[in-house]
Write a structure and sequence with these properties.
Helix content: 40-55%
Shape: elongated
Radius of gyration: 20 Å
Number of strands: 11
Structural class: alpha/beta
Distance between the termini: 26 Å
Length: about 325
C-alpha cells in the first residue's frame, strides 16, 4: 500500500476497478483495511474489498473482481491525509517487509509497490533512502540497480539516492560493469536475445577527450564498458547523455546505463509520469513500482492517475516466475 497518507490507497482501488487487472493476476493488497475503506469514499469505488489472512493466500478465487487485503491493522482510521506521518512511514515499512517475506517464501509471485514518503519512513524509525534499499537489505542482495521503464525507453542506474558529489565518488569500473551485466541479464530474461546497451558519460559530452572534467570517463567508466565488451555484451559508451536519450527513444538502443539519479530519471519522467515504471533488478524476487511519489498535495481528492500502477502490475506479472 505504500504510505497510506498519500495517494497509494486511491490508485490501488482505481487500478483494481479495471477488469484486466483481475484477468492477469490475483491481486492482494498488503496494508490496512481501514485505509482502503476510507479511500473508497475518495474515489467513489464500489469494488468489494475483503480482509484475508496469510493462510488464505493460496486459496483465493480467480477472476472474482474482489479486492483482497492482508490487513496488518497498523494505522488509526483518522490518519491525516496528505501529511508526513511517522505512523504511516512505519506502516509502509511493515507492509513491504511482510511482502518481501511472503515473496521469499514463495507465497506470492511478485511485489508491486505504491509510493512511500522518505521523510515519513525515516521519522517512523527506518533509516533507508527508499523502497529499493529496503528490498536489498531484507533480501540480502549486494548487487542491485534501479531500472526505469517508459514507452520506448529503459534506463538502469549506476547510482541512485545519493547526492551528486557522492555519486561521482561511488562510480567505479566494477560497478559500471555489474550494472551493464544486470541490464543484459534482465533484458535477456524478458526475451531480448542480444540487447543493445548504451552507457552515459559523467561529464558534458562524455568528457570530450579530457576537455571537461578530470578524466572520470577514462578512470571510472571505460574499463567497465571494455570488460563487458570482452564478454560479448553488445554495449557502447560512454556517450554524451544529452544526445544518447534521444537516440534510445528513436530505437538505437534497448537500454541506457545512467550514472546518477537525475541523469536517468529526468528523461523518463519527461515521457510521462503516468507511464513510467520502476523495476528493481538483481533481487531474488520480482519488484516493480510506480514511478511517482505520494502526491500529498492531491491525496484524498480521488483525482490521482492510476496508469503508472496499472503498468507496474502488468510488468510484475510479466516478470513473475511462471509455474
Amino acid at each position: 500500500m505504500g504510505d497510506a497518507a498519500g495517494v497509494g490507497p486511491e490508485i490501488i482501488l482505481k487500478s483494481l476497478q479495471h477488469s484486466e487487472m483481475h484477468d492477469i493476476c490475483r491481486p492482494v493488497i498488503i496494508g490496512d483495511m481501514s485505509m482502503l475503506e476510507r479511500a473508497k469514499t475518495f474515489v467513489g469505488s464500489e469494488v468489494p474489498v475483503r480482509a484475508i489472512t496469510e493462510d488464505e493466500l493460496t486459496d483465493l478465487a480467480e477472476d472474482s473482481g474482489t479486492v483482497y487485503c492482508l490487513d496488518l491493522d497498523l494505522l488509526p482510521a483518522d490518519l491525516p491525509v496528505g501529511k508526513v506521518s511517522p505512523e504511516a512511514g512505519h506502516a509502509a515499512f511493515e507492509y513491504l517487509a511482510t511482502a518481501i517475506r511472503l515473496a521469499m517464501d514463495g507465497k506470492i509471485s511478485a511485489i508491486c509497490t505504491a509510493p512511500l514518503n522518505k521523510e515519513a519512513l525515516q521519522k517512523g524509525g527506518h533509516l533507508y533512502p527508499g523502497h529499493t534499499e529496503i528490498l536489498a537489505d531484507l533480501t540480502g542482495t549486494e548487487e542491485y540497480s534501479m531500472m526505469l521503464s517508459a514507452p520506448n525507453l529503459r534506463v538502469i542506474h549506476v547510482t541512485t539516492h545519493v547526492g551528486i558529489v557522492d555519486a561521482i565518488k561511488m562510480i567505479n569500473p566494477e560497478r559500471v560493469y555489474r550494472v551493464i551485466q544486470l541490464a543484459h541479464e534482465t533484458l535477456r530474461r524478458s526475451g531480448l536475445e542480444n540487447p543493445k546497451i548504451a552507457v552515459c558519460g559523467i561529464n558534458p559530452h562524455a568528457g570530450e577527450n579530457g576537455l571537461f572534467g578530470y578524466g572520470e570517463e577514462e578512470e571510472k567508466v571505460i574499463p567497465g564498458v571494455e570488460r563487458a565488451q570482452e564478454e560479448g555484451i553488445d554495449v557502447v559508451g560512454p556517450l554524451p547523455a544529452d544526445t544518447l536519450f534521444f537516440r534510445a527513444v528513436r530505437g538505437d538502443f534497448d537500454i541506457v546505463v545512467a550514472m546518477y539519479h537525475d541523469q536517468g530519471h529526468g528523461p523518463v519522467k519527461v515521457l510521462g509520469l503516468d507511464a513510467g515504471v520502476n523495476i528493481t533488478v538483481g533481487l531474488p524476487i520480482v519488484r516493480t513500482s510506480v514511478d511517482h511519489g505520494t502526491a500529498f498535495d492531491i491525496a484524498g481528492t480521488g483525482i490521482a492517475d492510476e496508469k503508472s500502477l496499472m503498468e507496474a502490475i502488468r510488468q510484475a506479472v510479466d516478470l513473475a516466475p511462471k509455474s
